[in-house]
Amino acid sequence: MRATVMYGVHDVRVETVPDAKIVEPTDALVRVTRACICGSDLWPYNSMPTSQTGNRMGHEFIGVVESVGADVRTVKKGDLVVAPFAWSDGTCEFCQQGLQTSCLHGGWWGGTTLDGGQGEAVRVPLADGTLVALPVGPDHALMPSLLTLSDVMGTGHHAALRANVRPGKVVAVVGDGAVGLCGVIAARRLGAEQIIMLGRHGDRIALARKFGATDAVSERGDAAIERVRELTGGLGAHSVLECVGHGESMRTAVGIARAGGAVGRVGVPQETTIPNAQPTFYANITIAGGPAPVRAYMHELMPDVLEGRIEPGLVFDRITNIDGVPDGYRAMNDREAIKVMIEF
Ligand SMILES: [Zn+2]
Fold first, then answer.
1. At 336, phi and psi to the nearest 5?
2. What is the DSSP secondary-structure string of 47-90?
3. Which of 71, 96, 138, 202 could bond to 25 as cystine, CB 3.0-4.6 Å?
4. What is the DSSP letter of 98?
């Protein structure tokens, strides 16, 4: 089978790899029908030390179950399934709390030992805890939006929950990538009244407004903080969704949170410290967040997708086949594309 392998900075290849197959009785073998490239894939794309063996890539996918191990109960051959970006048993202490990204027996796709989503097939460990069956066929028009339940829509929702978004409140979203845009959807869905998008790309701001953003701030750094203060009567936002992970974006996020407010961070931190320890302390600002347990949110968000109340699939502005994956990475890295979907 063919799959995406990353060997180092800007070195993504599509190669023939060993066929995915069932190994454990709790596995499922999934033939991928749709996958995508994630903003978080761009971190290794720009920084991965050169590797001889390479890392299999991709953690967002939908596919058809081709076969299951003897112990699998909740999905069967022929089911169309969506996978969350982390696999989990669904039964441990943390899974029961809805924090599947901390599963005691789970893990992450790809790397050197597991299949990634950006390939033709995937061995799915702990299939019962991991996969969710979709009630539609593989060519359904809502497939792009259903694919976002793998990561970006659930991640935007997680940022909103961790930032304590409430009806009638003021929300600011730092980052106009796919997660930030889904954060706007999530904030609106949870009833926010004012939603301020911080971003600099015209097409993304336009999409944010379509998703429910009421204001856009294109300044950066201190100027952005000042502008958000102006838009919020000098007080700042109740809830800030940090959807980038840079030191600069985190500095902005804590700078625009109002006293007693919260920052929900879902951008993978690229620095070892959180800025502005003293001002956030004196203002009683909560800083929360982490990898989203998107598996926990699938059943909550799916009806909104299926019934057309939200359309997060609009974040996909480019579609390719597997041969176009390396150029898809380049296009996202050059900010030519917001998010690239791969059709198999
Ligand atoms: Zn678990």
1. -80, -30
2. HPPP-SS-EE----EEEEEEEE-TT--S--TT-EEEE-SEE--S
3. 71
4. T
Residues with CB under 5 A from ligand 1 (ion): 88-89, 92, 95, 103
Q: Ligand 1 center to residue 151 CA distance, Å?
A: 18
233 C-alpha to ligand 1 centroid (Å): 44
Tell which residue, 31, 55, 27, 129, has the closest CA to residue 87: 129
With a CB cutoff of 8 Å and minimum separation 6, the contacts of 24 are 69, 125
The token pair that represents 25 in the structure block: 């009785």
Could you read off the pLDDT of 247-293 as tens digits, one per residue?
999 999 999 999 999 999 998 888 888 889 899 999 999 999 999 99
Ligand 1 center–CA 269 separation, angstroms: 24
Residue 13 burial (CB count, 10 A):
13
pLDDT tens profile 190-210: 999 999 999 999 999 999 999
Which amino acid appears at position 81 of this protein? V
Q: What is the Å distance from ligand 1's center to 36 Cα?
A: 25
**Cα-based torsion angle of the residue sequence 158, 159, 160, 165 in order, rounded to the nearest 10 degrees:** 120
Phi-psi region of 126 (alpha: psi -120 to 50; beta: other; left: phi over 0): left
Find out whether 270 and 42 touch, Cβ atoms under 8 Å.
Answer: no
Residue that has been written with the tokens 């109340």 in this structure: 309
On the CB side of 262, how many CA atoms lie within 13 Å of its CA? Answer: 16
How far apart are alpha carbons 316 and 338 in whole angstroms?
7
* DSSP for 236-261, written as a single string: -EEEEEE-S--HHHHHHHHHHEEEEE
Q: How far apart are the C-alpha atoms of 191 and 273, rounded to whole Å?
A: 32
